[in-house]
User: What shape does this take?
Amino acid sequence: MSTRVRRHPERGAYDRQTVDAILDDGFLCHVGFVLDGQPYVIPMLHARAGDVLYLHGSPASRLVQALASGARVCATVTHLDGIVLAKSVFNHSVNYRSAVVLGSARIVEGDEKLAALEAIVNHVEPGRWEVARQPNDKELRTTEVIALPLDECSAKIRTGPPTESPHDDDLDVPSGVVQLRWIRE
Amino acid sequence: MSTRVRRHPERGAYDRQTVDAILDDGFLCHVGFVLDGQPYVIPMLHARAGDVLYLHGSPASRLVQALASGARVCATVTHLDGIVLAKSVFNHSVNYRSAVVLGSARIVEGDEKLAALEAIVNHVEPGRWEVARQPNDKELRTTEVIALPLDECSAKIRTGPPTESPHDDDLDVPSGVVQLRWIRE
Assistant: This one.
């Protein structure tokens, strides 16, 4: 590891409550894994249940292939909350909440697999599992569920107004935060 | 590479026009890189200019450290467009557009660095570069710009209504697509 000082160490957080809130506030994550030295990052849907992050995908996906060989993975969930407009371009930023989970994942089977799929479906659309037809054996075989423990995780958050440089105080440049959010139509 | 059949090969696209449109329709990407065998995925802001994807970050970031040693990276941009509610939980899906860029990145210097920062700032907030104070030398030194060529890239897209299983035709379960989109407030 480098001993260089990180630019914004104050944005880091390592408590599970902060990480969990970020994971639970969305259902899109980006999962990184390595095959033959090349990193891949693919979008997946997720749900957290207790101390585990569940993901699901096709058994034919590269990720599932990589996991079968015990690969390390990284799952990252990011929420963009705002565009931070400062008086100087250097101080421009975004407000965001990001959680990163590192670890070795495992393939989930049996009752845990069904419970994980229920968690994912109901995380994306609350109550939907109870409304739609349940999966049959053939459907379950063609869906792979992956569990990543929340042992190694961290969060990074930026909130609030722009941080201006003191010598920009007198500049007549409009600044502030443009809020961003998702809506369902 | 595996010879297994991918579950939805029809969703893949490899033409640059499709990839460019996905990259240009957002400014958040997730960048994957490897340090000591561990993949990391971090959120970054990006802008495309011609055949290059520009990213920017702190010189102290792990990504910049990894790049200094010539590491391969993967930059992925995903837009979630809708939640696809089918009659069976198995046929649930999301509508999305995702672009993946693989390659070796390089650190950008000089005039190209300034042009890349302008592209990123104006991609996030059109016209902002011209309004705010320009960066001075010290500020430029503490921002690193990274260029990733668009030589190896692909897109994956799902659109449209749910694909139902024929034997679910008579099921009385409401189905359809819930549209998702970003708004600026």
Observations:
- Chain B has one domain: 9-160.
- The two ends of chain B are 45 Å apart (CA to CA).
- The helical segments of chain B are 16-24, 62-68, 110-124, 128-131, 137-141.
- Residues 9-160 of chain B form a domain with the Pnp Oxidase; Chain A fold (CATH 2.30.110.10).
